[in-house]
Amino acid sequence: MANLLEQLKTMTVVVADTGDFESMKRFKPRDSTTNPSLIAAASALPAYEAVVKRGIEFGKAGGGSKSQMAKRAVDRLAVEFGIEILKIVPGRVSTEVDARLSHDTDASIAKARELITMYEASGVKRDRVLIKLASTWEGIKAAEQLEKEGIHCNLTLLFGFHQAVACAEAKVTLISPFVGRILDWYLKSTGKTSFPAPEDPGVLSVTKIYNYYKKHGYQTEVMGASFRNAGEIIELAGSDLLTIAPKLLGELESTEGTLVRKLDPKKAASLGGEKIHIDKATFDRMHAEDKMASDKLKEGIDGFAKAIVDLEKSLEAKLG
Which pTM was predicted? Predict the structure, then answer.
């Protein structure tokens, strides 16, 4: 009998949620996604010294203050990791726009274009890159414009249904609803220590989004992310994509049994709910009413921004 990971790959695109090349080689995902925290952890390892060096050299070449050089080095390092990842995975890599720009549409568009330009100058076509943006209203509007330019986007830090609907209406390529972080919020707010996997609030959220998208014919792909346990992954088998950390990939690989497809576009036709429209006023109202989504979006942006600042400081110290 095939293990759970092998079975999952027959119904869902598996994405590696890691900056570690060796894990990608082992688990053979189609795509990979990174963020500043993963890049920082990987760049501290001796195996990636050459990649880090290229990023630093790029930062230095532009001149200016150490701070300016470090900022350029961070962008270049993200692209350098992306280039190396694309030598391993056959599909796409997600590269993140600076989270500090999450509420600035124009600056997010400019940064995305800059990252894509670096990829294309290195011989990587834009259809192999997903630009990651936070699912703020401004981030979604940035993605809407970028998609019109053929720059495909992955909308991250997605916690609320209103964010998902706005992304679909903006015709973004991919969304990454954060299953585990939704669970974290509900565990803390209810005082519970666990939820049965079928009742996991993060699982229920992604299931609702998936069914809504499929019922109404949206092309935006759903990629569950940020998992806390294998049970969440098993409950979302059949999602368009799932991005999974190496530890859980290993757990699925070592587990025998029958994996049942839980999400199916045919079933979604009767489950997706009525179609709604999200304009800015509606988005703001629904976001304010959804304390979990508003709390976790702010927390996520703050956390990603801190990771970028920490990475900049680390690279600044290496500039000499």
Answer: 0.95
